[in-house]
Amino acid sequence: MRELSDHILDIVQNSITAGSNHTKIEITADTNEDSFKIIVNDNGHGMSEEFLKNVISPFSTSRRTRKVGLGIPMFIKTTEHCNGSFDIYSKVGKSTKVIAKLSLSHIDRPPLGEIADAMHILVVSNPGLDFFIIFKCDKKEFVFDTKQVKNVLGDVTLDNSDVSLWIKQSLKDGKTLVFGGITV
Amino acid sequence: MKSIAELEAIRDKALKEVNIRKQGDGTRIVVGMATCGIAAGARPVLSAFLEEVSKRELSDVRVTQTGCIGVCRLEPIVEVYKEGGERVTYVNVEPSMVPKIVFEHIVNGNAVGEFTIGYAESRK
Q1: Cross-chain Cβ contact A6/B43 below 8 Å
Q2: φ, ψ for residue B95 (rounded to 5)?
């Protein structure tokens, strides 16, 4: 994975596969704490305690096409390389929460990358699902809520081309507003 | 910053246009976005499809994502489902190939042979 955005997309894809229809994605940079935190919280069908214990192993996966799953192990390695931590909590039938922390200034930390593009893809190619996206850096904050957008749109769908452009631009603006002043 | 007022204007414009999209019909472009796909570069490919479809105002085309399609060594993989159930699988897709796929296949109805899985596998 070249950037943290790719890891985030990957984790959210797990949520979607688990049947989540409302996924919260929170990306927080804190220059005082020197931390970079990514939280993904979904309402999918969750994992049993036994599966959860093994989920950090590359040989644990829910997919049926192969017997390996590298998404979470790779993300864990990235956090370990950057003085960070990786935690995952899950309740069967209710929710799963992933918390990844990295040191903001660590030389090995991959860049956040094209987060606006990544979030735009999620929102527009899954118009039936809801996403609550937060970018935070120190005191600056940007919130993008698909429920709010859908309320305004009524019968017009998120994959309408003008709507799609609006979404992309507002996510880009949000990224610049929040993370513009620091190296992410 | 983008404003809600702007979004409302887009909505009103869209509602005024005659809705030619038939529910459940049309073309579906599905991009594999599991770990294998993302690591191989599926994200810029999906972005390119969204952009191309919106540039050409193809209102009956849906771009969606899916998990692992099963042949990870050929990622990024894109499947195109045309009306009537025909499916074409493109492999090792790069953003630069997207305009050609959209123009020749989606718009004109001729699959781009040299990008398909059949072509890639026959050259081994």
Answers
A1: yes
A2: -55, -30
Of B106, B66, B61, B121, residue with least CA distance to A160: B61
Chain B residues close to A71, C-beta within 8 Å: 34-35
pTM for the predicted model, two decimal places: 0.87
- Domain CATH for B91: 3.40.30.10
- Please count the structural domains in chain B: 1
The mean pLDDT value for A10-38 works out to 94
Contact A92/A48 with Cβ under 8 angstroms? Answer: yes
Output the DSSP codes for A106-119.
Answer: -TTPPP--SHHHHH
> CA A135, CA A137: separation in Å to the nearest integer?
7
Q: Check B7 against A166: CB less than 8 A apart.
A: yes
Domain A4-179, CATH: 3.30.565
CA distance B83 to B22: 11
Which residue of chain B is at minimal alpha-carbon distance from A176? B1
pLDDT at B19: 58
pLDDT tens-digit series, residues A104-118: 999 999 999 999 999
Residue A35, classed as helix, strand or coil, is: strand
Tell me the domain boundaries of chain A: 4-179
Q: What is the pLDDT of residue B79?
A: 96
ipTM of the complex: 0.81
Whether B22 has a pLDDT exceeding 70, the answer reads no
Least confident of A23-27, A136-140, A141-145, B81-85: B81-85
Range of the domain at B112: 22-122
Look at A166 and B15 and tell me if their CB atoms are within 8 Å.
no
pLDDT digits (tens, 9 = 90+) for A35-70: 999 999 999 999 888 888 877 777 766 665 555 578
Contact predicate A93/A45, CB 8 Å: yes
Residues 6+ apart with CB under 8 A from A53: none
Beta-bridged to residue A133, according to DSSP, are A25, A144
Length, in residues, of chain B: 124
